[in-house]
Amino acid sequence: MALEYNKSSLSACTSILIGKGATVDGSTIIGRNEDAKASWPKHFVIHEHKEFTEQQKFVSQANDFQMDLPKIRSKYSATPEWTSKEGLFEEDGFNEYGVGMSATESAYSNQRVLGADPLEINGIGEEAMITVVLPYIKTAKEGVLRLGEIIEKYGTCETNGVLFSDKNEVWYFESGSGHYWVAQRIPDDSYAVVANQLAIQEIDFDDEKNFLYHKDIQKFVSDNHLNAKPDTFNFREIFGTHTLSDEIYSTPRVWWGQQEFSGKTDESPESENLSFIKKANRLLSVDDAQDYLASHFQKTPYDPLNESKDNKRFRPISLAKTQESHVLQVRPNMAPEIACVHWLAMGVASQSIYVPFYMGMTDTPEEYKLGELPYDSKSAYWTYKLAGVLLDSHYKELGKMFQDKQEAINITLRKKLHDFDEQASSKDDEELPNYLTKASFEMAKLSIDGYKELIAQLITDSTDFSPLNFKTDMNL
User: Fold this and answer.
1) Cys-Cys crosslink for 236: which of 51, 122, 240, 438, Cβ 3.0 to 4.6 Å?
2) What confidence tens digit (pLDDT) does each residue in 429-472 have?
3) In what order do the strands lie in the sheet with 322-330?
4) Would you call the peptide bond into 83 cis, given omega within 30 degrees of 0 as the criterion?
5) Residue 317, Ramachandran bin (φ over 0: left; ψ between -120 and 50: alpha; else beta)
C-alpha cells in the first residue's frame, strides 16, 4: 500500500451504511474493512483541536497533491499508517462535532468515462481525504459538499466511495472520474453494503434532500454520449464497470450482506443487478455491522474454511490483508462526546475484537501508537495479528476455543460500555474528557489482556501439533 501510491491496485475494502430508522436503538452506523496488505501496521491517534496563526497547507507525500487548509482544525480521531513515508492514509474517525467519516471504498470507472475526464495524477486520493475533510466539517452533508468541491477544483487520482455520518444522516459519496461525483443519503429506514464497485444507481436531480452531485454532471454525460439509456440517469451504469472481476470479486460480498439482512432470495452471488439501497427484515444493531465485516460466507460452500470445491470461488469480506476494521456508531439522546463510539478492530476482523472508544477521549492507549515492521509484541495491531496467525494453522482444533474467548471479551466490553455510559452522563464538562479517556483505556486494556491470555493458550495447545511428533508404541 505505501510502497506504491496507487492503493486502489492493492486495496479492496468492504463497507456498510445503516440509517437511524433501521437500527434497534436509533443509531446511525457506518463501517468498513481497510484491506491492503497482510502485514502492514496501523496506529490509532487523536488530533486535538488547534487554531493556527497562519493558514496551513497540505502537501501529500504520496502524489504531491496540495491545497490550503483553514486556520482552525477541529479535534478528530484517525487510523494512520505506521509510517508516513508514502502518505498518511488516516482512513476513519470522528471529529468533535460528532461527524464520522471513512475513506475510502476503492472502485473502478469504465474507459469511456475516463477517456472523457481522466483521473488527475496529482489530484486528491484516499491518502489525503480524511486529513483535509474531516477536521473542517460540522455535518455529514457538509462533508459531502467539501469533498465534492475539492474534487471539482483539484481532481482526484482514484475512483472511490466515501462514507459520512452524523446523528441524523448517513451519506455515501462516489467519484466517477477525474472531476465528477455524486452522493446519496441512505434513507433512515434502509441500509447499503458496498464492495469495490460504483454502487449508486438512479439519481433524482430534483431531490436535493437525498442527492448531491457535480452541478454539470448531466451536461458532461450528454456532451460525451455516455448514457446508453438517456431516459434515466443510473450512475453505476454510466460510470461503472461490468467485468468478470466484478462478478467474482465484488458482487458476492454485496449479495452476502443482502441475503443476511433482507432474507434469502434466488438472486445469484454474481448478479450485476443487485440494488444499492435495501431494507432489512429486522432492525439492525452495531453487532450486525461488525458481524458482516467479520464474515466469510459462513454456512455456505463459499466459506474458505470449508473443504468444498467452491471454497475459493469468491473473495470473502474478512480476509488476511485487512489492516483494521471500524464501525462508527452515533447513538441518540446523548452528548456527542459519549454518543459517538469508534469501534476499532486491529488486523483481521474475524480474528480480532471491536474495541469501543469514546469520541470524547483526549488520547489513545500507547499500544495503539506502536507497531512497525517487523513484529512488535507491545503493539495492539501485532497482538491481534499474532492471535490470528497462531489460529490459522489449526482452525479445526482451536477455532472453538478462540471463538469462545472472543465472545467472552465482547460480552464484557458491552457491559463495561453500558456502565460507563451511565456514569458519564453525570460528569460535568471539566470531568468528562478525562473520564471518557480512562474508560476507553480500560476497555482497550481488557481486550488486549484477554488476547494475551488467548495467545498463551494457543501456543500451549499448538505444541502437540508438530509434524515431528511420533506416537510411541506402548510395548517399546
Assistant:
1) 240
2) 999 999 999 999 999 999 999 999 999 999 999 998 888 887 77
3) 191-194, 14-18, 28-35, 322-330, 340-346, 355-358
4) no
5) alpha
- The three three-digit cell numbers of residue 127, written as one number: 491518502
Q: Which of 1, 2, 13, 391 is catalytic?
A: 13
The three grid cell numbers given for residue 267, joined into one nine-digit string: 438472486
Q: At CA 30, angle to CA 27 and CA 33, rounded to 5?
A: 145
SS3 41: coil
Per the annotation, the verdict on 157 as an active-site residue is no
Q: Check: CB of residue 234 under 8 Å from CB of residue 201.
A: yes
What tens digit of pLDDT does each residue of 225-235 get? 999 999 999 99
Q: Is the peptide bond before 374 cis (omega within 30 degrees of 0)?
A: yes
| Residue 386 Cα distances to 296, 392, 399, angstroms | 20, 10, 15
CA dist., res. 431 & res. 132, Å (int): 30
Residue 153 grid coordinates:
477544483
**Secondary structure (H, E, C), 291-360:** HHHCCCCCCCCCCCCCCCCCCCCCCCCCCCCEEEEEEEEECCCCCHHHHEEEEEEECCHHHCCCEEEECC
For residue 190, the model assigns a pLDDT of 98
User: 3-state class of 18 per DSSP?
Assistant: strand
User: What are the phi and psi torsion angles at 434 (to 5°)?
Assistant: -65, -40
